[in-house]
Amino acid sequence: xxxxxxxxxxxxxxxxxxxxxxxxxxxxxxxxxxxxxxxxxxxxxxxxxxxxxxxxxxxxxxxxxxxxxxxxxxxxxxxxxxxxxxxxxxxxxxxxxxxxxxxxxxxxxxxxxxxxxxxxxxxxxxxxxxxxxxxxxxxxxxxxxxxxxxxxxxxxxxxxxxxxxxxxxxxxxxxxxxxxxxxxxxxxxxxxxxxxxxxxxxxxxxxxxxxxxxxxxxxxxxxxxxxxxxxxxxxxxxxxx
Length: 241
Description:
- By secondary structure, the chain is mainly α.
- Helix content is 78%, strand content 0%.
- It has one domain.
- The two termini are 26 Å apart.
């Protein structure tokens, strides 16, 4: 089931260029505690997003523009990791399900936003900090980083590289915080490394069918599935109280 989960998550990333951690956390969260799912996610997420990051052209310019945001991601993750590693699976599962559902509903119904350049120096650290807090609490690092990065006027290639940067920093911050909390053992690291193979296989499959899928229909199906998974996680965890 874990291998199939990473094939599916990799396939989604191959099709749309993102979504591996979101799909993996959503599916694995149905099978195991969120902290264990987050630990399994580290190596596949790091390698696939580092690949995406280094494939761009001007990393230094991107770092100058988004460096403060990435610092906020790191600080927020370290501050919130205690919630994910608390030993209780119920509240992290509720938080994870809520984030997945809200992310999906926003993707389905909210219009694309635009953030003026003059506001970005003020908003970037706040968005980074909030993304980090949600990363540390749930293991999911798409909200609000992804909506924000799509709203600051980046070109298509810049956006893909910026997403790679944000996800790479989030993964490293999550891994470091899990290690510091004693929740990332060598056994988990080995299992996480093995998950790279199905994730890469899924990515290759996704890339091979990318141009044959209707992008709008796929987007609606993806967000609808995420909403259902998130709401089910919340309902199941709440009923266990």
